[in-house]
């Protein structure tokens, strides 16, 4: 079974959805028997490649929301994250352009480290509050998952794998993806958003049957 997941590394529901899917695979006995491919998606292609304003401030400014409105939204997301074993601290989290992170992940895929890269990049942003537009952060992640730091540096300092990222994003538009996470099972079934684990389990059982 193949599952394709469009997501972005600064999308809070993408990390939650990843955990819901992983648990559903475990509960259905399909863990390790499914090919999960993560596809690139940019929530905000205009996000700065150098500045690192706080996520809450950047979101409020972009959406024209009050501090109280943003606080309420993030409190709800934090609680949902905790329900799947994740700890979010939006007070420390910084916004960042994720294009380079996606290119690094594409490089990692060619080295058989795609899954490790996706988990490490999400954890870097949401758990460790690191800036994903910082080359040193990305290089540390590359090294941590077993990639050559020098090779990763060459990727980040060039436009390598940019075409692969663009291809994923164009494909998302072609199949009608309007938000992430977006899960496609065997190119037949789709789940939009970080749905409860039971939704993933039902879909997995249906396809397996």
Concise synopsis of the structure shown:
By secondary structure, the protein is of the alpha+beta class. The chain has helices at residues 12-27, 55-63, 67-83, 99-110, 114-126, 135-144, 149-156, 162-174, 197-208, and strands spanning 2-7, 35-40, 182-185, 189-192.
Characterise the protein shown here.
It is a single chain. The protein is of the alpha+beta class and 209 residues long. It contains nine helices and four strands. The chain has helices spanning 12-27, 55-63, 67-83, 99-110, 114-126, 135-144, 149-156, 162-174, 197-208; strands spanning 2-7, 35-40, 182-185, 189-192. A hairpin with a 3-residue loop joins strand 3 (182-185) and strand 4 (189-192). Helix 1 (12-27) crosses helix 9 (197-208). The longest helix is centred in the middle third of the chain and has 17 residues, at 67-83. It is globular, with a radius of gyration of 17 Å. The N and C termini lie close together (11 Å). The mean pLDDT is 95.
* Strand order in the sheet with the most strands: 2-1-3-4
Which term fits the overall shape? globular
What value does the Rg take, in angstroms? 17 Å
Number of helices: 9
Let me know the number of strands: 4
- The whole-number mean of residue pLDDT values reads 95
Structure keywords:
209 residues; alpha+beta; 53% helix; globular
What is the element layout, followed by pairings?
Blueprint: E1 2-7, H1 12-27, E2 35-40, H2 55-63, H3 67-83, H4 99-110, H5 114-126, H6 135-144, H7 149-156, H8 162-174, E3 182-185, E4 189-192, H9 197-208
Parallel strand pairs: 1-2
Antiparallel strand pairs: 1-3, 3-4
Helix pairs in contact: 1-9, 2-3, 4-5, 5-6, 6-7
């Amino acid at each position: 079974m193949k599952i394709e997941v469009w997501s972005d590394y600064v999308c809070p529901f993408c990390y939650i959805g990843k955990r819901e899917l992983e648990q559903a695979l475990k509960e259905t006995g399909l863990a390790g028997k499914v090919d999960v491919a993560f596809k690139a998606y940019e929530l905000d292609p205009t996000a700065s490649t150098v500045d690192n304003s706080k996520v809450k401030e950047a979101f409020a400014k972009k959406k024209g929301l009050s501090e109280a409105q943003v606080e309420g939204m993030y409190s709800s997301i934090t609680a949902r994250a905790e329900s799947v074993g994740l700890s979010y601290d939006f007070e420390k989290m910084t916004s960042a352009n994720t294009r380079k992170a996606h290119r690094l992940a594409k490089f990692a895929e060619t080295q058989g480290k795609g899954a490790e890269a996706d988990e490490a990049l999400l954890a870097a942003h949401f758990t460790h509050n690191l800036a994903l537009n910082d080359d040193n952060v990305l290089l540390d992640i590359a090294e941590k998952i077993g990639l050559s730091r020098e090779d990763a540096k060459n990727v980040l300092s060039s436009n390598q794998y940019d075409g692969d990222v663009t291809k994923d994003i164009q494909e998302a538009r072609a199949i009608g993806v309007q938000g992430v996470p977006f899960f496609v099972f065997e190119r037949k079934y789709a789940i939009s958003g970080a749905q409860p684990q039971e939704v993933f389990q039902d879909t997995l059982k249906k396809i397996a049957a």
